[in-house]
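Page 47, continued from p. 46.
Same chain as before, 341 aa.
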Amino acid sequence: MVLIFGSAHSQVEADIIITPSGDFDTLYIKSYEDQLAIKFYGVSKSNEIGHVDDFTGQTLRYKPNEKFNIGIGFNYKWLGLDLAFNFPFINDDDEQFGKTDRFDIQSNVYLRKFAFDFNLQLYDGYYVDNPRLYLPGWSNLVPNPQRPDMKTRTIGGNAFYIFKNEKFSYRSTFIFNERQKKSAGSWLAGTFFSYFTLDADSSIVPTELLATFNPDIDFRKTRFFHIGVSGGYAHTFVIGKKFFFSLTAAVGLGPEFRSSDDPESDQRISEVVFAAKGVARSAIGYNSDKTFFGLSTVRDSSGGGGDNNAWLEHSVNNFRLFFGKRFDVSCWKKPKQNAAL
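Result:
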């Protein structure tokens, strides 16, 4: 289990890793729980908002100013700890993308038979990611259009059952206290929930696009609550016994309860639609008895159409780079003394 319990304003981030053992097929999976693993890693967590106009086919995208934290961690037996820090010389881009205040907790739990995700995000401050949509000739040499007044609040979770859990291991590609020895995959089935809010002082559609986007749709104060069931498939491809590529795709469907303020009448507008949700995981790297390295991503996105030919997409993202080594610590164990005759 990976539990990220502290990430306030991206200054310090800590992960507690708990991985209880379970039965598995030793022809497909090798365990390294008895070895000490030390790793260096980098992590970036964020979210993304997209205002989609179905009539014109255009999407206006907003992102927070993302931070890339660097840290060190270890795993031994069933316990691990990761610590990452924000280094100003790496994340010195507030002039280009604006300032984002954040509190971001993301948890990805990988047990033998189940996988769980949980996220809690409080973000203040966004910038337009695709300004050329309405500013022809815009140059990267000038700051992106910024919206410090935009605020989002997100809480959500997923739960998946792993059917072929004795041969397929998420922990081999995301935690690295195991190694997938042969290619294997598994069908997944589960459930999900999410609650998302967006607040802004004015419409999130710039004045230049009011003629392009539906002017009757305004997401400046909106609330979404989404629940449902999901299913998908996960597979890890093992190449040359030690290189791997893992991919997961899961789709969910269920009712989404939406409400927003009408800026003209000051009334609350509510609707219920069946909306889709997607969860994607990927990892690529190298995993041997002594060394492992690679990168991984997790993306949780939802959104869908309604009766107004416009909707809001929102996603939660997690990206990691890592390099680590394992060490034999059997010398730490005290030898058993023979009982006196």
